[in-house]
Amino acid sequence: DSLVAPHFFQIVVQDGRLFGSPIDILNRAAPVALLAIGMTLVIATGGIDLSVGAVMAIAGATAASMTVAGHSLPVVLLAALGSGVLAGLWNGILVAVLKIQPFVATLILMVAGRGVAQLITSGQIVTLNSP
């Protein structure tokens, strides 16, 4: 690829920020990499969790909505982490207490979680404007 597009690996510093294809790839890959690390641990222990994307959507919707509403960063982070913990607790109760198979229990939150995220944002796209 570097023969076809020689500037592909170029990184430019502009206004104190880094720009370039490698930076874009790292920025876009970070959330997926975090989920993949967590899922590796789940699968390594013989478990399964289909709801990780929905839990991420719930936590993201919580964080974005609270940020737009003007809450401070510590409050936003605690609320986002709390929503993720509540979702995990829900899955844990379904599996450990109600004895539902993990595949089915996490499938429930996978489907319902996207709807919960839509409810949090009132079905609107939440945009954040950074300075």
Structure description:
The chain is mostly helical and 131 residues long. It has 2 domains: 1-47, no CATH class; 49-131, no CATH class. It has 4 helices and 2 strands, in the order ββαααα. It has helices at 21-44, 52-68, 73-97, 102-120, and strands at 12-14, 17-19. The chain has a two-stranded antiparallel ribbon with strand order 1-2.
Q: How much is the radius of gyration in Å?
A: 19 Å
Nearest-integer average pLDDT: 90
Q: Report the count of strand segments.
A: 2
Question: What about the largest sheet?
Answer: 2 strands, antiparallel
Helix content: 55-70%
Order of helices and strands: EEHHHH
Low-confidence stretches: none
Shape: globular
Strand sequence of the main sheet, in spatial order?
A: 1-2
Number of domains: 2
Percent of sequence in beta strands: under 5%
Enumerate how many helices there are, as a single number. 4
Distance between the termini: 34 Å
Derived from helix and strand composition plus strand pairing, the structural class reads mainly alpha
